[in-house]
Design goal:
alpha/beta; Rossmann fold; OB fold (Dihydrolipoamide Acetyltransferase, E2P); 35% helix; globular; S-adenosyl-L-methionine; transferase
Length: 417
Amino acid sequence: MKVYFETYGCALNKGDTYIMMTLLKQRNHEIVNNPNEADVIVLNTCDVRLETGERMKSRIKELRKFGKKLVVAGCFSGAEPGVVKTLAPEASIIGPQALTKIVDAVEGEKVFSINAERSEITPRVFEGKIAIIPIADGCAGDCSFCITKLARRTLRSYSMRSIVEAVKEAVKNGAVEIELTGQDAAAYGLDLGGKIKLSDLLNEVLSIEGDFMIRIGMMTPEQFARDIDGILEAMRDPKLFKFLHLPVQSGDDNVLKLMNRKYTVDEYKELVKEARSKIPNINITTDIIIGHPGEDENAFENTLELMKEIKFERVHLAMYSIRPNTRSALMKQVPDAVKKERMKIAYKLYEDISLSIHKEYLNKRTKVITTEKGKKGSIIGRTLNYIPVILNGVEIGKWYDVEITDYSFFDLRGAVV
């Protein structure tokens, strides 16, 4: 059959799509790029925020109009299956931890499966020069605001063997960036008895021959702390991007407690301090939720102060939105007008900080590996600490010595030396 995939959300969701594509290709199904050409349409959904969930509802309605067999997969299916059933009674529903059921959904009758199952299938389908390879699904946390926990209920680490095989296949196919992703990459191995950690996996992947770089996906601070020595030691290897994505979510201890995060602001600062002391020029990227219940003016100011103190290279700012069946939804809410005003203030601060960081690169030379197409014929490359550099007249998948000629808060602009 001809199958069309449409994917929303994070890198893990994209990796899940590649796993489903791999399973179908093994059964000789054809992946197509247009829903009009397809026999089956697969919508891999996200549900992290209110507006995302609303977008998923609209897209389900739109895709039904094609009159094809419809499969709704991903976090929206796992967290709100009843809503999917109401919107598309005829559709198969597959949760993000039941990916192997995609074969039954495509080949057979309607499927409903949202329960977790252990699988060793890692992607063998890759697009472009960046290979997204899931290493673990689910997390060990239980954050008050998180609906993803309802969709990905169980931590499941893929075996080291299957991950290494996927990396080898990706490198063989020309990938130059390997993104080892998960809901919490540092939780890798906890469900395997805790004897294997992320650093063990990194060392195995680093031993693979080839000219490629590794990017570690998002890690919660408490799980990063569990393996900090091993991760930072692995990060000394030239094949590993000097990049840490550590979501802090708030700069206020009381809000962190309401969020059910497992660290304090001071503990987070210590992690950053240690990382910067051992890995010079490391890129610390974070996530911050603005307007979570319990965030008063003082708590918001504490978050701004943390941003100023740590000087994150990139901040993924999100205005808190109520998610169904989460504990935060039952708490007293911050008014929307207040959240919007705070969001403007925080975003302006983020832009100013990032501009000041990027200004330091002006007229300096740096090594850049090109990984993907940009806008208007440009090519996007990455520095060794994963800052994007916009280039022209270069090939994808190559290393270049670049002089930085301009900058924005979001990226650098460069010319090949």
